[in-house]
Amino acid sequence: MLDPAITKEMSVKELADGVINHITELGYRPKTIAIHSTTLSRLVSYCEAHGAEQFTVEIGNKFVWDCYGMVFGDKDASRKVNRAIRMMADFQRYGSVSRRPSVARPSVATPKVFSEENKALFEGVLADYRKVAVENSVAKYYGFLLRFEKFMKERGVIHFSQLELQHVNVYVESFADAERNTVRSRVGNLKRLFTYAYENGYHHANYSNVLPTATYRMYRRLPETFTPDEVERILESINRQSPIGKRNYAIMLLIARLGLRISDVLGLKFGSIDWQSKTISITQQKTGNPLCLPLTEDTGWAVIEYLENGRPETSSDYIFIRHNAPYDGMRGDFTKIISDAPA
Q1: Which of 277, 268, 322 shows the shortest CA–CA distance to 295?
Q2: Domain of 283: which CATH number?
Q3: d(CA 113, CA 142)
Q4: How many Å from the N-terminal Cα to the C-terminal Cα in the chain?
């Protein structure tokens, strides 16, 4: 673990190199390291091209969108890309990277018994939980405690009494983008452990007081309507020089000019557009009702520009596709792109 005072001053390249060295020391699989190395090398090049000397979450968001056509943190986006950017943020902030308990596949299996240093604490909290829970829930909690102790050991925390707030923060952030029920379950498990440890003298602080509430990760609420000037600013904020930028501009233009839902835009296929009559015909995904709209000149040319100069070669019937394999239809929420646009 490096001193956060050092990592916060690192350049993007130094930070990326530090992440790769750190996960190598943690025993990540060579294939996983190679994948993250490729993503971070691409991030370094992106930052150099945009004059960004240090990493920020904002530049990470823009990188994910511009280079992969995805919203950072979106559950439908690539987990590998999201994970690489999150590791950069963790390493910069804490000087270390935590394994993700739900997806990590360590080379050494998680032990099936507690260490002698923490056995009394963990067996005690299990016995206390058994008084109010069914055996199946107790068994799941046992597994959670094993994984949490393994996390502690990876951070150099041999005894629970050595646990510090920064370790708790890293652990919580490792599952912050999981499903709501998963977040709720893990936060509840931590609260039970921290409260028991504090009340029984295993730790000097009760960290349950600083744990977050398990809520949905939500983007800023959008206004119900935009002024014409606001719409133009949103559209002008999109980089239309890159293939992905051409795609994103066409998508946003269809939403802005025709009032289509994003799900209906992403579901457009070649048969949806009649170029002779200049119309778009769809069956709305939300209502199931048919809809036919005129294809305005600017939206039509935006789609043509993407098809001719931006869209990768693929046999997919969808007009708008992913720009990384597999080259097929897109899924995702573009709300953040609008809410982050210049006001």
Answers
A1: 277
A2: 1.10.443.10
A3: 9
A4: 40
How far, in Å, CA of 10 to CA of 5, rounded?
A: 9
- Same domain? For 146 and 186 the reply is yes
User: What is the DSSP code (8-state) at residue 113?
Assistant: S
Residue 255, both tokens: 């939403």
Comparing C-alpha atoms, which of 257, 279, 272, 276 is closest to residue 320? 272
Burial of 246 (0-12, 13-18, 19+ CB in 10 A): buried
- Look up residue 106 and give its amino acid: P
Burial of 227 (0-12, 13-18, 19+ CB in 10 A): exposed
Residue 221 is assigned to a structural domain of this protein: no
CA atoms within 13 A on the CB side of 77: 21
Helices 79-94 and 57-68, axial angle in degrees (round to 10): 160
pLDDT in tens, 211-249: 766 544 433 333 445 566 766 777 887 888 888 889 989
Shared-domain flag, residues 127 and 193: yes
Assigned token pair, 78:
């690539």
Question: What's the total number of domains in the chain?
Answer: 3
> What CATH number did the domain enclosing 59 receive?
1.10.150
Angle at 175 between CA 16 and CA 107, to 5 degrees: 65
Indicate whether 175 and 261 sit together in one domain.
no
51 backbone φψ class: left, alpha, beta (φ>0; ψ -120 to 50): left
For residue 43, what are its two tokens? 């991030």
In a domain? residue 240: yes
**Residue 339 pLDDT level (bands cut at 50, 70, 90):** very low
**Which of helix, strand or coil describes residue 95?**
coil
Which among 187, 197, 185 has a CA at the least distance from the CA of 125?
197
Instruction: Give me the helices (H) in 50-134, please.
Output: 57-68, 79-94, 119-130
| d(C-alpha 334, C-alpha 75), whole Å | 12
pLDDT tens track for 134-193: 888 899 999 999 989 988 888 889 999 999 888 887 788 777 656 677 888 888 999 999
pTM of the full structure: 0.39
Q: Where does a domain end: 44, 59, 94?
A: 94
Query: What was the pLDDT predicted at 103?
Result: 37
What is the C-alpha separation between 250 and 227, in angstroms, rounded? 19
